[in-house]
Amino acid sequence: MRIALDVQHINKPAKPYDKGASYKRLTEAYAVENYFRYTRALLEEDGHEVHSGFFGSYRDRHEQVNRYDFDLYIAGHLNAGKGKYSLVCHTTTAYPRTRKIAEILLDEFCERLHTTKASTPIWELGPKDRGWSCIKHTKCSAILIEPLFIDNVLHHEMIISGEATVKIAEAIREAVRRWEI
C-alpha cells in the first residue's frame, strides 16, 4: 500500500501565522514529526511504501498526493484546549473504506493512549463541507488525526517521554493492518 504521512503546521508558506499548538516550548509540528518518523519505520517494516515531506499550501500538498496515487493520506495533528479525548476526521472520497480506518484508528488510540472518544469522535467531510481543508481535496482515503492534547499535563508528559510516539505509531500500524483485511 502507498501511504502519505503529512506533518501539519510545518513548512507552510501559505499560512505562516498558523504555527499549530504549543505548550511549554513543545510544538505540535515537532511532536507530530517524531510520531510520524516512527510510524514510517513500522509501516515500511510491514512492506508499505511510505512518503512524507509534503510542502506548500494544503491544496499544493493534496495535488502532490493526488499526482502519486496514494492509497491513504494521514494528516498528523495534536489538539489543544486541555481535553482528554482522541479525534479522527475523514473524507467521504473513498467512503466507506475511509470510515472503516477512521473507526479502527480511533479505537486503537483510545485503547493505547487511555483517552476517551470526543463527543463527536469521527467527523465525515464531504466535498462541499467547509473547514478541515488539510484533508478535503485528496482523491484517496484521507484522515486527519488528533490523538492527544499537547497542553493536557498527562498527554504532554507522554509526548515528552516518547511514550506517545511509540503508542501513536503502533496504533496507526495496527489500524492499517486491520484495514487491509
SS elements, strand count: 8
Tertiary shape: globular
Lateral arrangement of strands in the main beta sheet: 4-1-5-8-6-7
**By helix and strand content, what is the structural category?**
alpha/beta
What is the beta-strand fraction? 15-25%
- Spell the H/E element sequence: EEEHEHEEHEEHH
First and last CA, distance: 12 Å
Give the radius of gyration: 15 Å
**What integer is the average pLDDT?**
86
How many H/I helices?
Answer: 5
Low-confidence stretches: none
What does the largest sheet look like?
A: 6 strands, mixed
Range of helix content: 25-40%
Topology record:
Blueprint: E1 2-7, E2 22-23, E3 26-27, H1 28-45, E4 49-51, H2 58-67, E5 72-76, E6 85-91, H3 97-113, E7 116-125, E8 141-146, H4 153-161, H5 163-180
Parallel strand pairs: 1-4, 1-5, 5-8, 6-7
Antiparallel strand pairs: 2-3, 6-8
Helix pairs in contact: 1-5, 3-5
Explain what you see.
The protein is of the alpha/beta class. The protein is built from five helices and eight strands. The chain has helices spanning 28-45, 58-67, 97-113, 153-161, 163-180; strands at residues 2-7, 22-23, 26-27, 49-51, 72-76, 85-91, 116-125, 141-146. Helix 1 (28-45) crosses helix 5 (163-180) and helix 3 (97-113) runs antiparallel to helix 5. The longest helix is centred in the first third of the chain and has 18 residues, at 28-45. The protein is globular and about 40 Å long.
Core attributes:
single chain, 181 residues, alpha/beta, 6-stranded mixed beta sheet, two-stranded antiparallel ribbon, 5 helices, 8 strands, 40% helix
